[in-house]
Amino acid sequence: MKLGLTRAAVLLAILPAFAFNVLVHAQRGGRGGPPPTPRAAAPFDLSGQWVSLITEDWRHRQFTPSKGDYAPLPLSPAARKLADGWDPAKDEAAGEQCKAYGAAGLMRLPIRMRVAWQDDTTLKLETDAGTQTRMFYFGAPQGNGGDWQGLSAARWDAPQAPFAGRGGGSPSGGSLKVVTTRMKPGYLRKNGVPYGENAVLTEYFDRFDVAGGDALLVVTSEVVDPEHLATPYWTSQQFKRETGTAGWNPTPCAAR
Amino acid sequence: MKSVRGLVCAGLALLCVTLRGQAPQIPTATPGQAPAVDLGGYWAPVLHEDLMERGAGSELADYGGFPLNEAGRLWALSYDPSRVTLRHHQCEAYLAPYQMRALGNFRIWEEREEHTQRLVAIHIWAQTTEGHRVIWMDRRPHPPAWAPHTFRGFSTGQFVGNALVVRTTHMKNGALRRGNGVPQSDQATLTEFFVRHGEHLTNTTVVADPVFLAEPIVRSNDFYRQPVDPGSWLYACDDGEQILDRPKDDVPHYAFGKQPYAREFAARYKLPLASSLLGGVTMYPELAARLRTVTDAEANALFAPARGRAPETSKGVDPEPRDGNIHIWPVRDNVYMLVGDGGNIVVQTGDQGAFVVDTGEGKLSEKVVAAIRSLTSRPIQFIANTNFRPEHTGGNAALGAAGQDPSLPGSFFLLQSPRGVTGFFGDPLTQATMLAHANVQVRMQAAGAPAAAVPADTYLEDRRRKFHNGDAIELFHQPKAVTDGDSLVYFRRADVIVAGDIFTTTQYPVIDVKNGGSVQGLILALNNILDKTVYRHQGEGGTYIVPAHGYVADEHEVLEYRDMVVIVRDRVTTLIDAGATLPQVKAARVTADYDTQFGANTGAWTTEMFVEAVYTSLKAAPAKR
Description:
The complex is a heterodimer. Chain A is about 20% helix and about 30% strand. Chain A is α+β, with helices and mostly antiparallel strands.
């Protein structure tokens, strides 16, 4: 009798858990259901308006450097030759004022950006400077690329697990990883430092919450372009979240 | 029953797993839990950003991207990089925020408790300046405001999501940017986020500094993993005089508006003159619009303090506990600092009886006595006063009465000082013996202090010595510093100097001109401290200095304080030489770059009083230059 009561109590305890699990599993795309959408699986909220914090390479980013001011970019000789021929007037005449606003250079400019989910599998990032739009596709990228922003494939990137077997602490959180290819050749820096159509831009977006309620977005980026760069080019850009829409100032691309 | 238990466990585990996946909440690891991110290994910095700063050094007057307030901008403009030729500045380590930007190799490893393997700390070793950071992961509290500061500060960490989040306090004054004077104060706090992406590590730093910054500054540092030990980890530094016969009160700096290279940066890169001097706006897209509105007059005004503005006040944390209690901080060996009753009190314990330096205001003397009794069962045998001011002698009578000098009963020398003969002093048989320079006795008697509070055992020469509790204790007279009766008290074996009002970490130095103080004497006294100190490593540690107010310091804090007093003295001297009156000197805001650290507009010692004391003592005895 005692055992019977215990069994009943156990069943009462675990049945709701099983029921709850089935319900939630179904909602999140468990066995037989669809997988969670990238939007639902997001480990943090990227949406909203963000403003650049230009605290590094300040002179090169707030102003257009002079021709020949390339340090410390790891330029190949071919790239240096191209950069030495930089002529913003020519870019303007050719209607290519946006060369510095391509995906590989855009995030280092002084910008505000607005991030929003276009649908459950696509993040849209718009900038006021240069009025550019980047689309991050968690599914198959749409389009053929070949424009300033290229094709961006996105996924949530959980921490790698070199800790297997070390006990405790399963990976959690994660970054947004975006790999962009098929960009129209543009500039890494406004003074004509080039990247080519074969360049691959890999970015990690991490959000951090700081005391006082501020949120930071840090975008760590790697540009691989063997034709123009002797080594991969690593930088990290900081943005601060803004609560309103003030400061949003769409402006066309400027070549100078 | 086993199966029943198993079912219960399975059910609860399932419920937990289910709930855990419900929302995109960022989980927080429990203390000691194994990290969700393995940061261990060898790392090399990626130098694709700010190479000039991290290599040759930042260009002068390039403060763009730094949200400096007026004090921060003026501090940087006043800075002369040749200051690092001064021997005490030569081996200074980097502050934690800059350490993460430095060249050289980095190594990160875990420290685990042996028997439980719980994570206790994460260590970071930086080759440059041999920077060793310890990030405590066991949720220990940060130290109190009166604890020593270090270049790397005190750090605690926690895994949040995929990031190691680190909070650092208790850093020293130093450079936020290397080479061009952008300052970081000892009130700054640092928040960091370490995130690993494969073989790449990003360290984001957020420095908040109420003294020198108008808002926090955020920067990120990138590292790539090295597969093998690079085998290069050391950075030996030893100091030495670079310019022989240079006066000890020579501190390289530029007068406000006289930095001869301040305009070169803008000119070299064809930037508007104000572009790098506008503080916070230089970080934002609004900079371009702001620069379009800056007039030449506005730009030129940025090189000197704004006129007609009241002095700023200290933005620092009040280090006084003000909770009605006495707090004990172990300084080193058998030397302790007692905080809470006005000026800091120092107690040395041992078999011979307690040796106390200064007695506070006397408002909490009973608790001071209780605190001393918690440290030693022996009586208070000696009390030394660093000067006569009430913050240091207020508790003399009470602490004296609670003590006893066991060397006196039956002593031949007692015959020379029989009780009741003069009526000037307390009874040496029933109270502690009080030591001080003779001028302390004179000043206290002139002020009508009760006999039981007046030091009877005085000295007239430059040094008094006493071997007590296994330590050699020296009192060095510092003539014409705060007063004419100041003493430094030096515990030689413990290597602790009690500075009295000659040095604080919280306010401008009191210079009591009416009672014999002078700015020149104060600078001499600060240099006398520096002549006795030995740092342990990279310009910090080693000799401890207990200030009248604030936290336990080492030579670095005294050095920065000495620099400040010299710089202010030089500014006032220049104005006096130009015929300025006291009101004109005050209006010139000669302390504008230090006011957010030390300034006060109310209270017992204000910025105006300090400037007036400097002016008055220099008018009486001009500085030799």
